[in-house]
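okkk here we go again. third time trying to get the copper (II) ion bound version out, last two times i messed up the smiles copy paste (missing a bracket lol). double checked this time i swear
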Amino acid sequence: MSAGARVTSFGALLVAIFALAVLAGRALDPATDAAGSEDHAAPGGAGAHAAGAAPATAGGGLRLVAEPTTTFDPGRAARLTLRVVDAHGDTLRDFEVEQSRRMHLIVVRRDLRRFQHLHPAQDRSGAWTTALTLPDAGVYHAFADFQTGGERHTLGVDLFAGGQFTPLPLPAPSNVAATDGYDVSLRDDGSRLRFAVGRNGRLRTDLQPYLGARGHLVVLRAGDLAYEHVHPVNRDELTFATDELRPGRYRLFLQFRHADRVHTAAFTKVVAP
Ligand SMILES: [Cu+2]
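finally!!
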């Protein structure tokens, strides 16, 4: 498939704070059509593959709405219901299969220390639902990643888990990450990010396809949560071409499948100005 690579910038934390205020307004008045103002809040602008700092981010006239609730009890599974609505407020029903699913949902805590990749199911009304557990307190962001009308979109919505929130710093930058007994290494040759998966000191070349690809890489920038989701440039290697990473601190989430299980390895990467 096409690289689909895109990083959209969302301005500063200020925008996120503004977005929270917008959300508060929406909660009081769910009928409010926030698309207009949020178009301007997201520097990505109309037509961009906006991935949002805003609770219901406009992207090509589409926005994501989470109703009836965006608030969850930490550690407790509950139902998340999302709808993609068009400029008229009508629920979008037609989605195209992308990487063997029609909707990918990436949920991260805003400090980028929690990550999950879910696949909601669509009901007849067009709404998408999934069981979701926000593991602990904090503000989270859900990215809905989908394709419609031949175009890929990423829309976002903030989710909340109440309680005492202790933001965690990003781990130190590293080119190695351990997960589930695997050692994953990262080599950045400037234009490509190359990963290798080892276990017990041996390189694993028998990775299984996961959602139609050998691996999935989600790149998120700390602070504004600029988002990019890419797949390997060829079938047999975990080599990815991302958009040029602008200065900032990033968390890279690599997902791969081995021994019939999906594993996630996370790396911190700093790009100097
Ligand atoms: Cu993917």
